[in-house]
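Trying the structure run again after the queue cleared.
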Amino acid sequence: MKIHYTYRITNLINGMFYIGKHSTEKIDDGYLGSGKALRMAIGEFGEDNFRKEILGFYNSEEDVLIAERAAIEPHLENVACYNLAPGGGGHLSGRDHPSFGKRWKQGHESREKAKDRNAKPVYQFMKDGTLIEMHVSCTKAAHSLGYISHSNIAYAARNNAAAYGFLWSYNARSPKKKPHGSGKRITQFSKDGSIIKTFDSVSDAIREYGAGVRNNLLGKNKTAYGFIWRYEEKKIT
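Done. Tokens:
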């Protein structure tokens, strides 16, 4: 017998979220959403940095589709929402999807306008600090690189950190590394405990990988970017 439920997946690093529905015969089948923007974010931050919660159970596919749409629609103009369409269409897509046309277009345009109103320039740098260009918003920067979601760039820009192989900042000044010895040294380990590299400070590691390194050091997740991070005096236990 199939189980039908709606769920919410939250990015524990930046607070963005995705709402969806799932039908399965096994409640713990490991399903973690299928939205394009969500899957990109999971690829960037790692599955350990996402939490899934079940919102409700339903008796049929039809009931869960209705519930999914009702749960998503209030958030379509929220820039923190990974959902790109209202949902409620089952496995249909394109012109067969009930959201195709006016309602989806209006929702999409509303989200884009909201993003533009809240936008501020973001600066893209090479990892050596060389300025590449200024983008009018994180959304435009993400699109220029071929990505849908802007959340990774926005998070990096707030922390003068790395995303998609570049440094990002809301400041036109190049993010500069701290002098050697100005912070605690940290060590990067593989999941089996092998030492990969040692950094002179947390900031150096963040500039190379991203701000998720700090969350791993604080114990908020098991890994960051596929590695374990520890202050130099600490060992993997």
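The chain has three domains: 3-113, 119-169, 186-231. Worth checking whether this holds up in the mutant runs.
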